[in-house]
Specification:
Helix content: 55-70%
Largest sheet: 5 strands, mixed
Structural class: mainly alpha
Number of domains: 4
CATH architecture of the largest domain: Orthogonal Bundle
Radius of gyration: 26 Å
Distance between the termini: 82 Å
Number of strands: 9
Strand content: 5-15%
């Protein structure tokens, strides 16, 4: 007995010692209390996450054990403030899992994800805690709450209910089982897609096969081959390489090979295959929705959106489909007719589309990516994008190398308001690497909140996969990459300018179909000459981007707009099909997909490729039953930017209204009320159809 006691004490002392030396559990002493990445090791995460969960549980216990009657302050506010250590540690961990992952971090994620799900369930399924929450909620009419406090109360109560608080004990056990399995499956889905992306490499040793490919891409491919101790040119399927290759490579067989590599990820029947995972995730989501009293998972999700229900979503999708389909059909005919003039006699396939579309664009507008890239050197683009925030909102950005970063490529900025007040830290991570998943996104390491008179400011990150510099050239972005930068920076501004009392409602904590408004509105400036003139200069000559080139950008703005719209709509219809299922789907994923988006497809069916199994937005991200929100937000952003067009694209009064009513407010009020306060009316699709040339 004594030996067991001694071993127990030794174990406890070891745990305490480890905690004392774990940088994730100590006060962060880096500038602005940023994460000390230079001190953090992989092995620190699991014990830190476990310790933080225990602290979070103790904070919840303190709420439930409070002998005082439940009040807004001792229950609702206390819940909002609980778990901050866990939020801090998890913020570091999950951002690294997406941006700089490795096998060890992925193993930690596999172990900790079910624990985190259990932790969250232990809170929302805690009967004693919910009793206190419900008591405050039931008496809300007697409380003198501010609008933000009312929204927090509504949000906390609703989240408890939506996470199973009203279920029976038997149902709660089932909810735990479902949510735990879902958390693991989502991780596996994302890991499989990343693995498939990283595994593919195409080595070409005959340069004659690479006709048409721009010198900048060839130089990067040669450098990649050299890094693998190979002779020739090596291509991968990271976004910048894949997109440039498909637009430029004359060799149709190589285009077809890369197309299949990119579009068959996790669809090969091997250990990285996601077909059964997709079916299981959708089945579990349906079970969860049914358990909570909803007919479909989409019904469950859409209850907390601006769209509100599936009827409204399909109304939007179909309205835009009816406007887009005839335009897309004519565009395909035009591209095919043009390809025929170049001697192309085959059936037009997806691996031909970007190539001939780019050639047609060059003919119609005398414009292509290679003509524009010299004017979009990354550092100048940074100046331009940040400068737009300076012009509109008075913000300034200062690089501070004293702020630790998780990879040498990452640039850490301090953001200040027009009066010099510190607003945020912004991490900018621009280039692809093996440890980073594909795509582009914004997140936070720490949200914003206010407490005891102190405004605790956020730490924001934007992560992208842009064209890398080569031995002879700096990073020269495509026009699309510049637009993507503007998009993610819009999300960042939503976080940077957050001005809420409660972290639960802060920044991007808004309805899913509202969160894209701040990002998508920024893209409107990309085609404005007055904006481009401020930073777009040739990286070698210093020449400002010529007016005729800007006019070509503007003239080509709606080139293939119908096709682009149909592509987004196809994803929206596919998403809704998976999440309006009323019974589990047991057939082939490919067959389901083909039926779901059939009317939006302009190319023949192709065997061996599948979107669903690599659709991380739906199955490893937060857009399930929400992908339509990109089109929903297009309606909002076109309508909102029309006000800037009326008053001037740099109009400070309009910008200040957008800042105060949209960017600062987060989720403190219903988004439609915020939008109407800015715009003076509800949005219509007219501005979007007019902007895209489909009206």
């Amino acid at each position: 007995m004594k030996q067991v006691l001694l071993l127990t004490l030794l174990f406890m002392n070891t745990e305490i010692l480890l905690a004392q030396h774990n940088p994730l559990l100590q006060p962060f002493t880096s500038p602005h209390e940023t994460a000390p990445f230079h001190l953090i090791q992989n092995e620190h995460f699991l014990p830190a996450l476990k310790t933080a969960m225990e602290q979070g549980r103790a904070e919840i216990d303190a709420i439930t054990d409070n002998p005082q009657a439940p009040s807004f302050e001792n229950t609702i506010e206390a819940i909002d403030r609980s778990g901050r250590l866990l939020s801090r540690v998890a913020g570091v961990f999950f951002n690294l899992l997406g941006s700089e992952t490795n096998d060890q971090l992925q193993q930690v994620a596999q172990e900790v994800s079910p624990l985190l799900t259990q932790y969250r369930n232990d809170i929302t399924l805690n009967a004693a805690l919910f009793k206190r929450v419900k008591s405050v909620y039931d008496n809300r009419g007697k409380l003198k709450l501010t609008p933000e406090q009312q929204m927090l109360l509504e949000e906390v109560y609703t989240q408890f209910v939506r996470q199973g608080a009203n279920l029976s004990d038997e149902q709660k056990a089932k909810f735990r089982e479902i949510s735990t399995e879902l958390s693991v499956l989502s991780l596996n889905f994302g890991d499989n897609v990343l693995k498939e992306t990283n595994q593919y490499e195409k080595l070409v040793t005959d340069k004659n096969l690479l006709a048409g490919i721009p010198e900048s891409l060839l130089e990067a491919a040669a450098a990649k081959a050299k890094s693998r101790n190979k002779e020739g040119w090596m291509f991968d399927i990271s976004a910048p390489v894949y997109m440039a290759f498909m637009k430029s490579a004359d060799n149709r067989n190589l285009r077809k090979e890369l197309y299949f590599a990119y579009n068959s990820k996790s669809f090969k029947g091997d250990e990285s295959d996601n077909q059964e995972t997709v079916k299981r995730i959708t089945e579990l989501r349906l079970q969860l929705a049914n358990l909570l009293g909803y007919n479909t998972y989409a019904d469950y999700v859409l209850e907390r959106t601006m769209a509100a229900n599936t009827t409204q979503v399909y109304k939007l999708l179909n309205e835009l489909y009816n406007a887009s389909a005839p335009v897309a059909k004519k565009e395909k005919e035009e591209v095919l007719a043009f390809a025929r003039t170049l001697g192309f006699q085959e059936e037009l396939m997806p691996w031909d589309w970007s190539y001939y579309a780019e050639k047609l664009k060059e003919k119609k507008f005398d414009l292509n990516d290679e003509m524009l890239k010299p004017y979009f050197e990354l550092n100048r683009v940074i100046d331009g994008v940040f400068g737009l925030a300076t012009e509109l909102y008075g913000l300034t950005f200062q690089l501070n190398k004293a702020i630790p970063v998780y990879h040498p490529d990452v640039l850490p900025y301090e953001v200040f308001d027009r009066d010099g007040k510190f607003l945020s830290v912004l991490y900018a991570d621009f280039h692809p690497r093996a440890g980073k998943r594909g795509g582009a996104w914004m997140n936070d390491f720490k949200p914003q909140w206010k407490e005891n008179g102190t405004d605790s400011r956020p730490h924001i990150t934007i992560v992208m996969n842009f064209t890398q510099p080569t031995e002879t050239k700096p990073a020269l972005l495509t026009f699309y990459e510049m637009e993507t930068f503007l998009h993610e920076f819009g999300h960042a501004l939503h976080g940077i300018l957050a001005n809420s009392t409660y972290s639960t409602l802060s920044g991007t904590s808004v309805y899913r179909d509202f969160v894209e408004l701040p990002s998508q509105i920024m893209e409107n400036w990309a085609v404005e000459k007055a904006f481009l003139d401020r930073f777009a200069v040739h990286y070698q000559t210093g020449e400002k981007i010529p007016a005729e080139l800007v006019k070509k950008i503007k003239d080509s703005e709606n080139f293939l707009a119908g096709y682009a719209s149909m592509r987004q709509l196809s994803f929206g219809f596919l998403d809704m099909a998976w999440h309006t299922l009323e019974k589990p789907y047991t057939g082939a994923v490919k067959e389901f997909e083909e039926r779901a988006w059939h009317k939006t497809q302009i190319f023949p069916r192709i065997e061996g490729v599948c979107q669903s199994v690599a659709f991380s937005h739906l199955f490893a991200g937060g857009y399930a039953a929400g992908y339509y929100s990109y089109k929903w937000a297009e309606v909002l952003d076109a309508d909102a930017f029309s006000l800037f067009r009326q008053r001037g694209i740099f109009d400070k009064t309009t910008a200040e209204s957008f800042r105060k009513n949209i960017l600062e407010k987060g989720g403190t009020e219903h988004p439609m009320e915020l939008y109407k306060r800015f715009r003076g009316q509800e949005p219509t699709v007219d501005a979007l159809l007019e902007r895209s040339g489909m009206k």
